[in-house]
Amino acid sequence: MQMGEGVEWGLHCLVALAWLDDHAPVATGRLAEIFDLPPEYLKKRLQPLVRTGILTSTPGARGGYSLARRPEEITLMDVVAAVEGRDEAFRCTEIRQQGAGTLAAPTEFGDACGVARAMRRAETAWRRELAAQTVADVMGMAPPGAPVRMRRFYQDITL
Amino acid sequence: MQMGEGVEWGLHCLVALAWLDDHAPVATGRLAEIFDLPPEYLKKRLQPLVRTGILTSTPGARGGYSLARRPEEITLMDVVAAVEGRDEAFRCTEIRQQGAGTLAAPTEFGDACGVARAMRRAETAWRRELAAQTVADVMGMAPPGAPVRMRRFYQDITL
DNA sequence: GCGCGATTACTCGGATACGAAATGTCCGAGTGGATCTGG
DNA sequence: CCAGATCCACTCGGACATTTCGTATCCGAGTAATCGCGC
């Protein structure tokens, strides 16, 4: 089980956009320079964030991406759901109904099987923790010098 | 982010082995019949459980797999770690040190970055829930008729 | 009838193909500013 | 010198290759029961 790099990239970009909040869109090329990432691929990874309403995209010259809402209102759950999809990591294929299960009364399958329930319970805890943390919280964990350094860096590459 | 089917198969097989606990090994072919799964592929999926000491394999005729320890002592965390690997789903690639981060003092990177800490916190909650549940707990969630039906089915296919 | 050995059938384990999904790249649609022209 | 229209550079969005990982299959090593043979 492996999570794609889109979540890491997306979260860092969201934090960066929040820090250099000059109300002007930031192009993917600039964001890619900030983290030294492949620009075209980063763009592809940010598009899901636009579809789900986390980012706002401005086409045309001087265009780019902006935060669609305040950092305190963007949870990590939102970002993970947007990038990695909404369906659960563990998907129950109901193999209990196969083989030996074909002999059981259908009423036995009224509630979800124990395996799925146990896995879902763990995954719910994961989602709960993700939903409890916002981009603003992540910003608060950064060292104090990081925001100003980011603004300076951005000014340098936009010259 | 998608979890492989090995976890589901492995857990169901562990429960089945615990139910028909006649202290005799069960071959993968029989386990595959119980859940109507591809036998060869199921075998490949159970091998990690042997390597990590959850299952015991008996080679030769009348061989097969047996539980290496009691169901109460097999946590879901053990199974997930064995099948899906031990490394975390979210892997921090330290992109904060790239680009704009190259200008920062190395002392700023003493503790993990906020993104990684936030994701790790959620994943820890997930692992904690997995470690808190055992195969025995999953067995307890099954309908009462399931164990006897499984034993009957196994007797029929071993004739 | 009984003990011993070779044979045989059955099992796990790892090495080998196949397919799907993630990764990475490209071109087209659209927008805003800059430039050029005419008054 | 100024207003307007045109042109151009820059951006996002989705369609198109490439690589990696998960899925599926096969063959070889090893074991235990079975069968046959000799005593």
From TrEMBL, chains A, B:
Pfam families: Rrf2. This is Rrf2 family transcriptional regulator. It comes from Catenulispora pinistramenti.
